[in-house]
């Protein structure tokens, strides 16, 4: 008897596993593959040779070299090998990925990643240190070909504000969802401010967006040295002298990504910014759950977008 167990724990699809129950109808006990053969039988070698013959045939059908491991990398069957019986035939089977190699390719954006583990229908890999929210993941399989994984990479951490939905006070007119720039995870804030509409040091008094109800993890408040503030930014106009102020209630942090004579620009692409939290809070902790984004310092034509303000562990 072969039973399929299915488990869904979120994501695009669930995982499954086939479990065989080979029952001795006389004793009522479960028998193993070994029990079907004489004690000194060389049954493993016979079965393994047959499996290798079938793999050679499959390789031939795929126009692969006879001993290619591109589709299957098989060495031997296990002592507790899964099997079931149909009439007078023993069927040996393997879980998904059990004998397939990690010969497929996985791309995080344009960067090929090393697949470190394959279990059931799940692939594991280490994220690159510069992982950007919104990145698409692509799998290239020798059997199924090229496939895009549904959705995009999204690092949440201690989420402060992702504008999905925006539940702040004021600034609703700065909440955007595209089409320019294309959103990465839904809504984002966009500040398109002409130089004459916010003079030097005046933006903070005329243009702002404030997220309320922000909650901070207890460990973030107690050990801010272990965390970073991260967010995505997209400049449609280069930023050369206008500071951006992040206002954590009584804590002001003026973000100045440009250098003297060198403007900050992402050329219309989303870019992830990481700042040590202790540099932002300087040992203090916000009194309330309000995060406000506004401009500061010198006036210039500004067109800048933000999304996914979050606090994440450094490691």
Keywords:
six-stranded antiparallel β-sheet, mainly beta, elongated, 10% helix, 4 helices
Quaternary organisation of the protein chains: single chain
Shape: elongated
Poorly predicted segments = 9-13
Biggest pleated-sheet summary: 6 strands, antiparallel
Please write the string of helix (H) and strand (E) elements.
Answer: EEHEEEEEEEEEEEHEHEEEEHEE
Task: Tell me about this structure.
With 315 residues, the chain is mainly beta. Helix content is 10%, strand content 34%. It is built from four helices and 20 strands. The strands form six sheets. Strands 11, 12, 13, 15, 18 and 20 form a six-stranded antiparallel sheet that branches. Strands 6-5-9-10 form a four-stranded antiparallel sheet, with no helix packed on it. Strand 1 and strand 2 (15-20) form a beta hairpin. 17% of the residues are buried.
